[in-house]
Amino acid sequence: MPAHPPRRPLRPLCIGAGFTLLEMLVVVVIIGIVLTFSVLSLGGDRRGEELGREARQFTELLRLAAEQTVMRGEEWGVQISTDSYRFLVYTDKGWAVQEDDDLFRTRTLTEGTQLDVELEGREVVLGANLDTDSEDAADKNDADKLKPTLFILSSGEISPFVARFAAKETEQRFEVKADARGDLTVETPEH
After folding, report:
1. Is residue 12 part of a domain?
2. Considering the domain boundaries, does residue 23 fall inside one?
3. From 23's CA, which of 10, 56, 129, 171 has a CA 20 to 30 Å away?
4. pLDDT at 113 over 50
């Protein structure tokens, strides 16, 4: 018996043992498609982010307004329409548009933003617009037109409310909530 096992002969190189150029191109195209979708998904929901910024800006302006009312000893209001909001101050002549501070100027919401307000569990019907640019409109300090949706008292208290920010272009929603003490929060509700 031989001491060594018999050697197998080396197999000759098979001609069809590799990948064809077409198979390689298909794999490269598939990898490209997968990478494209993953990069696009990382881009995020730009409209949702913009909506969140609007909700946070609204919240922070209300916080600042509450601080201003305490420091100035004034009663303020926020008049909200379907596409904008503005700050009002109560004077001896009634409600007037807050004009002495650019920070509290009229704010217009991004086109397509839906804003719904609920006070004490009831939906508030918001006006179409604040009519701030119309020359034909009556004096912008006309007491009949200046009715606050929310009140900000000189004690810093804010009318308890829920403001819902939404847009058709995104699934994201934001809720700005205030309790009677003036504590404000921004939440993303589950849908």
Report:
1. no
2. no
3. 10
4. yes
HSE-up (13 A, CA, CB side) for residue 27? 6
Q: What is the pLDDT averaged over residues 99-104?
A: 87
Give the chain's domain count: 1
Q: What is the CATH number of the domain that holds 176?
A: 3.55.40.10
User: Is the Cβ–Cβ distance between 176 and 163 less than 8 Å?
Assistant: yes
For residue 174, the cross-strand partners are: 165
Structural tokens at position 74? 């004034």
Predicted model pTM: 0.71
Quickly state the pLDDT bin for 109 (edges 50, 70, 90). Answer: very high
CB 74 within 8 Å of CB 101: no
Which strand (E) or helix (H) includes residue 108?
strand 107-108
Q: With respect to residue 158, please indicate whether it lies within any of the assigned structural domains.
A: yes
Classify burial at 34, counting beta carbons within 10 Å of its beta carbon; exposed 0-12, middle 13-18, buried 19 or more.
exposed
